[in-house]
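Retro notes - structure team

What went well: the batch runner handled both jobs without manual restarts.
What didn't: labels got mixed up in the shared folder, which is why I'm recording both outputs here explicitly, each with its sequence directly above its tokens.

Job 1
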Amino acid sequence: MSDKSTKMEDKKIAKDTGKKVFSKKDSSKKKASPVKSVGKFIREYRSEIKKISWPSVKDTTRNAAITLAAIAVVGVFIWVLDFGLSEIRDLALENIPKWAAAAKADDVTSPSDMEVSLSDIAE
């Protein structure tokens, strides 16, 4: 097949499918200069900024109040949970010497073990 027939077939396929066929010449196009690219970016940026829908002062105030209320509720919940868990911990730590003494007294088998156990508890 010749180069011309291949190009004609590519054009026919592109026409039938609606897809663009790239040739070697298409890929050798020069890129836009950096200055033009920056200018295009700034123009597109400005047009996108104009499309933004900014909230009103009333909406912003309401949303801020809702956020602060949610923070307060979560803060109180965490404080109550922390207070309750520390109280449980304190109660458990206060009773540990009693549990330890009872456990050591149960493990005593001879009088000499009992003396050591009692001295350990006294400390």
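Job 2
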Amino acid sequence: MTRTSIELVASVDDAWPQLQQLATWEGVAGIEDLEDGTHDADGNLTGFRFAMDTAVGRVNGKATVVGSKPGMTITGEQKGLAITLMIVLREADVGSTAMIDASSKATSFLAKPLELALNALLDNAIDDEAAKIAERVS
């Protein structure tokens, strides 16, 4: 699992609603074409459809989102690869801090090379992905 932390200008109360918007997640960790967002009665994001370019071509998937303020987990599985993105917000002296974990796991032995490649990519890109999120919620 790849982990990073980034400072946000916004408080948890201001950042949380932004994390419930599909536009915040567009392009993060390679997920694109987000659509069909679903929300619960409190306005919390519960799922969406997405596309992603992978070594085996462009795949479409459905993400499930669970959690409530201040933390959420986004999971999706396609082509034998499960992807998990977790974010937890914590109040700081000024604004808040976002703790972000990202990982992929092969769900079939054929996808093991994809898992290794994607986890290496996440290790190299996690700080850039966290910066995208911070920019969008601040």
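One thing worth noting from job 2: The chain is about 30% helix and 50% strand.
We'll revisit the folder naming next retro.
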